[in-house]
Batch of 4 targets.
Target 1
Amino acid sequence: MSNGKRREKGANENIRGGEPKPMKMVEWKLIGELMKNSRRSDRDLSKVIGVSQPTVSRMVKRLEAEGYIKEYTMIPDFRKLGYELVALTFLKLKGSLSNEETQKARDTVKERIKESKFPIVMLERGMGLGYDGVLVSVYENYASYTEHMNLLRTYPFLELSRLESFMISLNDRVRYRPLTLALLAEHVLKTKKNVDTT
């Protein structure tokens, strides 16, 4: 199977049940190289990580099946695509929700995300700073951000006084470390090497 077809298909297959096998250092290297550039051929990857091309193909297939590799994607220049803002919006659920109301809120969010015209990059629950979740999204301009915030204010299960955002202008010429998985890949490999040598 060609790289493109395998990666397109494999990333969407169901994960097998049970616990995944622990990863070997060579698999960590493969993950790191794919995070830097998922378009690389298995042949190129085999040269970089020091194993045969069929071994790379088998490792990728296993890592996909076990859910270590979730998808293959790229990171565009959002500004060139017409987006001016990235917003991290912190969400707080109303404290008096019953279990039934909490489940209804989850179902409502899942449905509305499918229908949303707003590009939501990530929506996750968590904890910290007194909030229950975070919404990461990109916007064409401040007006589209405001429209989305007004929509969120219609959700009856959100604490409206606790709906706050941290906004990043993509037009700002000063950039410290733009979004890239290559830097994360290097960190993962350094951390893994340090763990393996101790």
Target 2
Amino acid sequence: MCGIALVADARGRRSHDTVSEALGALVRLTHRGAPAETASIDGSGILSQIPWDVFADDLPAAFAGGRTPRVLGMFFMPRVRVSALEDLIAEEMRRAGFSGCCWRTVPVSFEAFDSRRTAGFPAIVQLAAIAGPPYGPVGLRVSATRQGVTV
């Protein structure tokens, strides 16, 4: 069985208590389909506001502060096509009115996984971009069909 939980403050207040409650709900969710001996699990976690300060060392100064409208995307890509896909996505973002596209490789550890499983794992990268005037399009969907990929 799979599960889903929603924890939020109805007034939109930020607090550590909300994060703690969300983590508590996450602990209670289980998935009974992955055998323990393969060290495989489904992706699970919590979604929160983007912590831009965490990215300060990896992104240019233009992303600092809260005045610039920014976006962050998460991509799971075949390791052998990362560079070509990054170029394609960045070009589509520029066409959609975004600038300052910066890629960041997400730090991950595969130590908990069986080595037979890690060969097929994707590269996990993030794209940060600055919205152009008047703050870029709403609901952007990047369609990279030229390469047979919809992002």
Target 3
Amino acid sequence: MAERDEYDDDFDSESDSSPLVKDLRKQLRQAKKELDSLTDQVKESQKSSRERNVRDVLNAKGVRPSIAKYIPDSVNSEEEILSWLDSNAEDFGIELSGEVGAPDPGVADRQRADALTSRAVTPSKIADFESRMAKAESDEEIVAIINEARQYIL
């Protein structure tokens, strides 16, 4: 026997037993099943997305992944997770590493120093340019040497 809804009793008169009404009820039951299925899929997707967010934030902060099971389900976004971690870090005996995605200031300094040293003009480079200029036989060679030397001029 087919499932009956609470409203089916209201429509059990003989005048409603037409094929059209039966077909509409069948379509309604099918639509409800599809809605339930889609709702379950959305919930599962949200759950996996939250788990991935929590795992990524914990990894970025250098926190053990096992802490994830203590983070409440109401904490979803990255900001909420970070806030929860900041307020509960002491309770778990963890120290949080720097900002998520924040660059190490030492890295930027080293990159600037490397850029300056690679552009620095050493005496051997000057001597090389002078000797190449002296040996240049065409205007094109001279222009190429000058263009190469310009990259070292600050």
Target 4
Amino acid sequence: MEIKNIKQSIEKTKVIDTATGEIIEEYSESQYKEIVAHSKDEFAFIYASLNPVLSKLSKPAILTYLQLIQRVSINTNELMLVKPTIETIAKAMNVGSQYIRNAMVVLKKKDILISKGSGLYVLNPLHSWRGNTDERVTSMRLVLELKLTNKLKK
């Protein structure tokens, strides 16, 4: 399996007349860099490295997060994380259920995974989203309300 990610950077150059300070010429150059991942795990770490919040997560948290992204409901980012679901994720990753639970604790502390109660969670739409972009705004409002409600309870 080979997954490609193309990164683009734009370099802007200005040629300035040193005597007058006038800009004589201005041009931009685009540079592309191809990053190739040879496995899903490698892709996961490349993907996470591009997001400042995800880049600080541990390997178990990143791998669990990627499993959760695949299971969220479209247009809500909600998912049920009850014992059978956690066991299914653990089996897919060839790890124990406690590995997933520990990673969930990390994701909750970082406000990436937010509890709505009784096994219902929402993945913070600031970091990933599946569905219509108009619905993302609605979900982001819900996340802010949940975070505010949770802080008031404490």
